[in-house]
Design brief:
With about 270 residues, the chain is α/β, with parallel strands linked by helices. The protein has 10 helices and 8 strands.
């Protein structure tokens, strides 16, 4: 397929436009070029965006696809009238019909991060990120009772990125602990985790994939050898079974899929969006 460009235009960060747009585009076998145009919050900026979109259309000989979450009607009007791309106005598609159905007018806020200083949810999410960073890789044993979930697993099984995703996306305080040779020798979880079994969720991974990942970090080391990876994964899974810990394999799962599974096991009323 010839080159196709996709624009994401917003008067805020553009996260909503890009997330929604990418979810739609994932249904098609294509690799478009992404162009992000955040903070288009004036008529002048809108005209600049239109010129960029139309130039792309001329160069590529195909209409760009344009996802927008523009709130300002004057700014949106410039895009609607001048843009030569295929325009997909997500607020117009979803918010306007909801206003009619609900009989109320939406807030027409610019972005999910507006009025940050007044948002308890935003500050809770920042606190969760700080907590997860402080409790990454077993660095800190203190305050584990404040955690929403504690991830355990062998080194490089996906604990850190999952912890940060849970904190950033949902405001959950996620600690994580690596299972190390000393734990396998004792055949027990780290002692600091014993009082918090109900909060623990395990991550495992196929030894072959684990060896590949570790070899990128420490090539030709015992740490990365397939034999050692098989031993560690086997011991970790045995330990989780003995402890009655819920766990899943991250081998073929995305961070989003891993987090979604974990969310099914913890209190959804704690979630922050």
């Amino acid at each position: 397929m010839p080159q196709r460009t996709v624009f994401f235009i917003s008067d805020g960060t553009g996260i909503t436009a890009e997330t929604f747009g990418n979810a739609i585009l994932a249904q098609f076998e294509m690799r478009p070029r992404h162009v992000r145009l955040p903070f288009i919050d004036s008529v002048d900026k809108a005209h600049q965006a239109v010129r960029q979109i139309n130039h792309t259309a001329e160069v590529e000989g195909r209409r760009p696809i344009v996802f927008t979450t523009l709130v300002n009607e004057e700014v949106l009007s410039v895009i609607q009238q001048g843009c030569k791309g295929m325009l997909l106005d997500m607020f117009g598609t979803f918010v306007n019909p909801l206003e009619q159905e609900l009989g109320i007018t939406s807030n027409h806020r610019i972005g999910r991060f507006s009025d940050v200083s007044k948002s308890k949810e935003y500050h809770d999410r920042i606190e969760a990120i700080n907590f997860s960073l402080a409790h990454d890789d077993g660095q800190l044993n203190r305050d584990l009772e404040l955690s929403d979930v504690i991830l355990v697993g062998v080194s490089r099984s996906g604990k850190t990125p999952t912890s940060l995703y849970l904190a950033m996306q949902y405001g959950l305080k996620a600690a994580n602990y690596p299972l190390i040779p000393e734990d396998f020798e004792r055949r027990q979880l780290p002692p600091a985790l014993a009082p918090h079994l109900k909060k623990i969720f395990g991550l495992t991974i196929q030894p072959e994939r684990l060896s590949e990942i570790r070899n990128e970090r420490r090539p030709n080391s015992r740490y990365a050898s397939l034999q050692n990876c098989r031993m560690e994964v086997n011991e970790a899974e045995s330990m989780m079974r003995r402890s009655g810990i819920r766990w899943l394999s991250t081998t073929t799962k995305s961070i989003e899929e891993i987090a979604t599974t974990i969310l099914q096991e913890i209190r959804p009323e704690r979630l922050t969006y």
